[in-house]
Specification:
It is a single chain. Helix content is 9%, strand content 44%. The chain is mainly beta. The protein has a single domain, classed as Immunoglobulin-like. The strands form three sheets. Strands 1-4 form a two-stranded antiparallel ribbon. Strand 2 and strand 3 form a beta hairpin. It starts with a strand and ends with a helix.
């Protein structure tokens, strides 16, 4: 089993001086998150993007894991003859 490990550090301090009070928020420190990656993921094609404080990770499936695609799927509706045959089955 393959595991992904995300490691980072928060550096955050926010001060407010509004109408007679002073407030300071601090959230900081290192963090680590780990999770199992399914065996259906192609680990050679994993991509990550960090933009505007959001980390996006793309885990594409291996070609063998994808369901087969049929070129002639039709409209998904049953033909009229199939509908009439099903009405007369008891």
């Amino acid at each position: 089993m393959v595991y992904a490990c995300l490691r980072g550090q928060r550096k955050f301090a926010k001060e407010e001086n509004i109408k007679g009070y002073h407030r300071i928020e601090r959230s900081y420190g290192e963090f680590v998150r780990s999770f199992a990656v399914p065996s259906t993921v192609d680990t050679e094609k994993v991509q990550a993007d960090y933009k505007n404080g959001v980390l996006t990770i793309q885990l594409p499936k291996k070609e063998a894991s994808k369901p087969p695609v049929s070129e002639d799927r039709g409209s998904g509706r049953r033909s009229q003859s199939a509908v009439s045959r099903s009405k007369y089955r008891g």
